[in-house]
Amino acid sequence: MSIAACPGIPDNPDITGLGVRLAFYIQAYITVILANLPGADVNGSYWAMTMTAVALFISALVLSGSQNLSLFHAILISVLLFLHSYAAAFSMWAASPFGVNRAPESVKTPREMERHVWKFQYKSVPVFLIATTFTGYIWIKAPSFGTPSVCNPETLFVILGKKLSAVHGGRISALILIGIHGVFLFLFLVSGLAFFIWDHFASPSRTIVPAYLFPLTSESQRKLNPNLEEYVHIPLRENTFAIEKVFRSRRRRKPREERNYVSQLRIGMITIWSGILVIFVLLIELTIKDNVSLILDPNDSTWTLGQVFPVVMLAVPCIAILQWSLEHHSVGEAVSSDAHHVNHNGEGSQTAVAPHESFSYRDQGVGTEEDTP
């Protein structure tokens, strides 16, 4: 039986256009950077990123329903969706109190803290669910998916520089990766559901794991950072919210160890995310490059409405970062002015807390180990 020749895949700048790709890359990167800035509001950027991903997904459904979506374009859509899924996960983790930021003042108890963290984490689920479902479907149907399906055997999927057939090696590799993502997503959903069920029935005074909420008070952190004993005197066996209360009241005079920990956490997250972003960019760009011979009249310079929309949405995270910079600069000037005023009058030196000094929990109305029976 003879195999029909591939007639070529019509170009679709709304999906493969340079504007769409750049907008997705920049938006994903900026949103994670914004989430790692102390005190920055990431909600607007998160929703802008989510709207862009959902709009791309809806476009894919419309094109697929009208038999105008090829396997090649579906693969690119799936990778872009996963790019935004990872960006949402990283940004929500960083923006939650479990990451680099503190809980809002409305959070008063450990249970409210745990609830707050889980709600933050669950915000990354919708795009992950869409990406996993859509990607799993197209790879299961890869041999016959889309139009023209006769081009599917010639379509390449490039993973870490290795060219794989989209209906053979590439398909198997993709299904394995999707399976792994599916398992982790399922476990995360079950864990969250278990927490919310537990939260509904358990006593309000109970919490899950204090070390989960406050990494600096965990036994491993105390062993790795012996100097923390100078600041943390609350027994781990005590289920207390006092440590967060103390750190919240000392936002401008955190212990040096905590500042170093948070700085390292930010740098580590941004570094890991930068590496993941590079992998996604290479995967998309190399897949486009190695399939360009299948595309009819490829033209990266053609700008359509589908490309303009994601570019316009870039304004949201950019404005958020600009706003944070202005506010941060204003706060810095105010603090510097206050310090100059205090020094000029020769006052306030007795109340300043040196980085190496121990902090008294009695000043905050919190018991120390000596007070614990």
From TrEMBL:
Keywords associated with the record: Membrane, Transmembrane, Transmembrane helix
Transmembrane segments: 22-39, 46-65, 71-100, 120-140, 172-198, 261-284, 304-322
Keyword Membrane included in the entry's annotation: yes
Protein name (database record): Uncharacterized protein
Presence of the UniProt keyword Transmembrane in the record: yes
Organism of provenance: Sistotremastrum suecicum HHB10207 ss-3
